[in-house]
Amino acid sequence: MIVQKYGGTSVADTGRIRSVAGRVAGAKQAGYDVVVVVSAMGDTTDGLLAMAEELAPSPNARELDLLLTAGERIAMSLLSLAINAAGYPAASYTGSQAGIITDTAHGRAKIIDIRPGRILQALEQGNIVIVAGFQGMSTALDVTTLGRGGSDTTAVALAAALGAEFCEIYTDVPGVFTADPRIVPEARKLHAVSYEEMLELAASGAKVLQLRSVEYARTHGVKVHVRSSFNDDPGTWITEEDVRMEQAIISGVAADNSEAKITIEDVPDRPGIAAAIFRAVADEGAGVDMIVQNVGRDGKADVSFLVPKADLRRISAVMDRVLKEFGAARHLIDDDIAKVSLVGAGIKSHPAVVAEMFAALADEGINIEMISTSSIRVSCVIRAGDSERAVRAVHAKFGLGEDARGVRDHE
Ligand code: ASP
Ligand code: MG
Fold first, then answer.
1. Contacts for 228-234 with beta carbons within 8 Å, 24 or more apart?
2. Which of 17, 225, 329, 348 could form a cystine bridge with 375, CB 3.0-4.6 A?
């Protein structure tokens, strides 16, 4: 059994849907039981969101979820019709019909259970099964969505629940690259990356997969193959780190321009302050990245951290409130930053990598404003305008391109 997922571009119009139907039929003919997860056609989700926001500045979360799930339902039924017309029995199911049970957090619901009885039955009867991505039904029996890009997570979760051999994610790019090929033309497609590396890349701004789908794949050991729906070329495998991958030092460079920096000045240097600040941020449901606190002087310290630009206004209002309680002077906002990250499983055993990355930026005259590292990632905050130059410089420094010495074996 395989699970295939097709993104919005891959089902953007009826012509594309017909070609997806052909690909799905091909997998069936090759002897697979096929479950297909679809995204909404093209920019449908953005269009629905825009209409909702036009009518209601902060739309009711339950109603918004009902609206947004309609996009995937259109795509699933059209694909099912096309597959039927091609001579293969097919049946489509909404998230709730497919037994995808979530918590009640509208707009960012988490899958807590999958009851695939109905899908298994349909497969047994010889059907190709189509499931609407990005959605489920909550424990309160309401329709929920899994967050933008959530169809990836639907596909991986179904692959896990059904015990599929692997999960194919069909998209409009050929796979995962050593850098964004639009910024670095000589970027190379990776044959394979480990779950850990993919998690770091996704969190660092690589937009190929929804972060949560990678977490799900790692937790449940689902092999994922990211590939283009526009040709038959193999893409990138995301799996357990294997013996062959051990030679890899660096997998890629990513840039993220979606975050802003908040700096709180003159925070009283005593227990409980950080807890209170970040509790307040967490209560807003916002993700926080790269928290840096400097050494306290005169009983005061500065704290800086990154938040998604989309959450900036809300977090800033929260800071006004919290800081008043602690007598911290003020907080500053800087939304003209970028985060450039180098990711690779070999970083932990090659300490020189960190220094070489800093040297690559220094050679370009790019100032580093914040640094954070994990055992397989180095991230630097720089001026937003330096972001593309930084990616190119780091990519070149580590010879990640097509004709370079090749720190990773590849296809
Ligand atoms: N259609 C949804 C979105 O655009 C879900 C998805 O594409 O995975 O975010
Ligand atoms: Mg989409």
1. 228/170, 228/171, 228/172, 228/173, 228/174, 228/175, 229/6, 229/7, 229/9, 229/10, 229/16, 229/19, 229/20, 229/23, 229/170, 229/171, 229/172, 230/172, 231/174, 233/174, 234/175, 234/191, 234/411
2. 348
Distance 93 CA to ligand 1 centre (A): 17
Q: What is the pLDDT of residue 405?
A: 42
The pair of three-digit structure tokens given for residue 254, joined into one six-digit string: 């990513």
Q: Which two tokens stand for residue 243?
A: 């013996």
Dihedral angle, C-alpha 230, 233, 238, 242, nearest 10 °: 180
What distance in angstroms lies between residue 37's CA and the mean position of ligand 2's atoms?
12
Q: Ramachandran region of residue 390, left (φ > 0), alpha (ψ -120 to 50) or beta?
A: alpha
Give the C-alpha separation, 45 to 72, whole Å: 9
Q: Which pTM does this prediction carry?
A: 0.89
Topology adopted by domain 2-172: Carbamate kinase (3.40.1160)
- Domains in the chain: boundaries: 2-172
pLDDT tens profile 274-325: 898 899 998 888 889 899 988 777 888 899 999 999 889 999 999 988 888 8
Ligand 1 contact, 8 CB (< 6 A): yes
Q: How far is the CA of 45 from the centre of ligand 1 (A)?
A: 6
- Ligand found nearest the CA of 38: 1
Q: Which two tokens stand for residue 50?
A: 């825009």
CA 193 – CA 250 distance, rounded (Å): 10
* 33 has a pLDDT exceeding 90: yes
Backbone φ and ψ for 144, nearest 5 degrees, come out as -125, 160
- Give CA–CA dist 264/335, Å, rounded: 15
Residue 154 CB less than 6 A away from ligand 1: no
* 39 CA → ligand 1 middle, Å: 6
Distance CA 190, CA 185 (A): 14
Q: Ligand 1 pocket check: which of 6, 69, 100, 134 to mutate, most ligand atoms within 8 Å of Cβ?
A: 134
Q: 95 CB less than 6 Å from ligand 1?
A: no
- Residue 117 CA from chain centroid, whole number: 29
Between the two ends of the chain, the Cα-to-Cα distance in Å is 26
CA dist 14 and 299 (Å) reads 65
